[in-house]
Amino acid sequence: MYCKCGGLEEAHRIFAKHSRRGVVLWTAIIGGYSDAGDSRAALHLFKQMLLDGTKPNKVTPTTFVAALTSCSSLATLPVGKAIHATIAETGCSSIPLVQSSLINFYGKCGSLKLARRIFEAMDDKTMVNSWTAVITGYAQHGEMEHARKIFERMQQEGVKPDEVTFINVLSACSHAGIVEDACYFFIAMTQELGLAAGIEHYGCLIDLLGRSGWLNEAEALVKKMTVQPDSVLWSSLLGSSRVHGNVKVAKHAAQRLIELEPENAASYVQLSNTYTVWKPCDAATRSA
């Protein structure tokens, strides 16, 4: 209960009082730290659990899921491989939830062949998470041809991508700076599959368009949004406009940002910097 409510210190205090710590108790505390984003603490506890002579089993596979999630966050390949070995020892290798976590882990660490091998060996490929993990892994490392093929195969096999699939893929495309493929997946989501884009989907694509210098296209997409743009999105667009010298879009983004956060001085500063750097260039261009 304390873990789920964010009271990790209290949860750990109660955990430390127990002299007999079964796998369920270990799973709760490891999962609590993993969910809170404290990956190092989660992995430290996982190691302590094994040293204590306790191993997860087929009844508690979420222990492995939490540990692998922490490994993915830290991109610690050797530790993840050691956990994979423990998974094999305990007979949990064929559990779909664990397999999906392994695919996600190896994909994020760049071991794409191993991630793919685990995926292809799965008897049950009906979990959206497994497909999402493979596609995201390829996208994160710029292997967009493979990402598209798996995405198409996913639909051919009757597994429908969900909103989380597209958040992960669009985020991966954004980090990799791949505009064309991001647009491909966004169109597939909104037009072909009829899924509603949320603020996170729009945010990934608009941030990518802005950083790539496609400011007018980014602004046009903002105007077509079916949800209200937030301050994070406008701030991203303002920052990209300053970098690429689009004073018009910068002014629009700053005005919207000021409306949302009138007390935030950063918006005024960024707009002022944009004018200072780029307005003389505009004037010189016109007079030439």
TrEMBL record:
Keyword terms: Repeat
GO biological process, one term: RNA modification
Segments annotated as PPR repeats: 22-56, 127-161
GO molecular function: RNA binding
InterPro entries for the chain: E_motif (IPR046848), PPR_At4g14850-like_plant (IPR046960), PPR_rpt (IPR002885), TPR-like_helical_dom_sf (IPR011990)
Record flagged with keyword Repeat: yes
Classification via PROSITE patterns: PPR (PS51375)
Keyword Hydrolase on entry: no
NCBIfam families: PPR
Protein name (record): Pentacotripeptide-repeat region of PRORP domain-containing protein
